[in-house]
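Notes from hallway chat w/ T.B., transcribed later so I don't forget. T.B. wanted the structure written out for a chain they're using in a teaching module, and asked if we could keep both sequence and structure tokens in one place. Agreed to drop them here.
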Amino acid sequence: MPSTTRTTPRRGLLAAAALPLLIGALTSCGYGSDAKTDEKKVAAEGEKLSADTVRLGYFPNLTHATALVGEQEGILQKELGGTKLVSTTFNAGPSEIEALNAGSIDIGFIGPSPSINGYVKTKGTNLRIVGGSASGGVKLVVNPAKIKTLDDLKGKKIATPQLGNTQDVAFLNWISEKGWKVDAQSGKGDVSVVRTDNKVTPNAYASGAIDGAWVPEPTASKLVSDGAKVLLDESDLWPDKKFVITNVIVSQKFLKEHPDVVEAFLRGTVKTNAWINANQDKAKDSANSKLKALSGKALSDKVIDAAWPSIQFTNDPLAATLQAQADHAVKAGLLKKPELSGIYDLKALNKVLKAEGQPEVSDAGLGVK
């Protein structure tokens, strides 16, 4: 199935680290032996919705496993019927947001910081968050020979993926709450914050260039497989141990012109998350198979078995935690106070959830009026 790649310069302070892009591939299979389908709610096979094609963007990360599994098991395509799903993978928030802004993709899975940045940069005119996907999956891992307690981080070199990205903001906020001082732009201070993209972080750790890292999965578990120790799971810092790590976004133009396609896609994400949560081992293998198809190499059992349990797959976008993350970026001096009213449009998601017999989710007062 066709796919494309894009690279763009780093844009904005709330961007994820730019890495070499991988090629997105669509694999259409069955739902799996345990899955159930309400055929009345699924477009008949071969029947197109209002768009011939929907173009999807996501990262080849475990925190985007709703996309990985949804494609690998054919669940997303099943819900779209004859409307063709074409995917592209990205390794950087800026490139995916740029693709959405340029009209090169219609829907994307992406983290909270790029979502906020993309919304603010266009003054609220381009994207909407229409669903949740994942919570958690971020850890502080350290060299146990150098760091035994959280207080031992003072004076050490700790990596984050990029200046102003989601994990960078979280770490800067944690440092501030410890009462330590760090210049956000340079990363210099009581702790040295070293911006290092996730692809090279394991090598930086192995060489001793960093003493630890505040990173998402599977990078955290890759470091643990190299001898690092988990010192803190970020979920422990949040109410109910939940915080958004992956959203589903859509261009406002596509949402306006093709609401039926967006609804069908969200029905696919809801059913994918249900299948993941009901079939954890199968879902883990499915996600790893898709990663292998995308990158040519699957994660080792040691890495994926350690990484998988820390990620929760949820339809709830956890909107209150998005606002909190924006507030943390403002406090760190990385962002002027943003106007986020209207960033969410959860009407289609809540319609799907109601039809599936699940509770509706909240936009925390940040939804379209």
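Follow-up for T.B.: The chain has 13 helices and eleven strands. Might be a good example for the class.
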